[in-house]
Amino acid sequence: MDIHFKPIEKKNLLQIISLLQQLNTETPKNLLEKRVLEMGDYQNYECVGAFDGEELIGICGLWYSVRHYIGKSVEPDHVIISNNYRNKNIGTQFFNWIYEYTKSKGCEAIELNTYSGNRKSHKFYYNEGFEIYAFHFLKVLRDDKKFY
């Protein structure tokens, strides 16, 4: 294995769709593609990847902001490691890279959300030193009131 980490160029963002579909099983592919392209247009969003050689095996979106209570922070989003590469310590390596990468951009803290039913991710984040600071609430404004 030749595991390495690097930012994904905005022109290549659609290459993350197959991994996103592992997490977003209810969201239609065309809607995922539309959203990813729109996300790439935001200046405070960046996507980074874990690669085995040239193969994309993991992704993590990074949302940058400044918060009055913690300063410049980054929010990892849609963190996914390909099923074939799980339980090989790649998540820990990826986050170690993310810590250093975002610190080099001036980030003072990392905040994240994880689905409440994703217990494996909870264990991972606890082991990484994350603590529960708040709850994330969501209200769907679309007429169908569905989450997708």
Question: What would you note in describing this structure?
Answer:
This protein has a five-stranded mixed beta sheet. The protein has helices spanning 17-23, 29-40, 90-104, 119-127, and strands at residues 3-7, 45-52, 55-67, 71-81, 109-110. Helix 3 links the parallel strand 4 and strand 5 (109-110). The protein has one domain (3-127): Gcn5-related N-acetyltransferase (GNAT) (Aminopeptidase, 3-Layer(aba) Sandwich). It is built from four helices and five strands. Helices cover 29% and strands 26% of the residues.
The percentage of residues in β strands lies in: 25-35%
Write the CATH homologous superfamily.
Gcn5-related N-acetyltransferase (GNAT)
How many beta strands in the DSSP annotation?
Answer: 5
Strand order of the largest sheet: 1-2-3-4-5
- Predict the CATH topology: Aminopeptidase
Compute the number of helices: 4
* First-residue to last-residue Cα separation: 35 Å
Low-confidence region ranges:
none
Structural class: alpha+beta
The residue-averaged pLDDT reads: 95
Rounded radius of gyration (Å): 15 Å
**The CATH top-level class label:** Alpha Beta
Principal-axis shape equals globular
Largest sheet properties: 5 strands, mixed
* Range of helix content: 25-40%
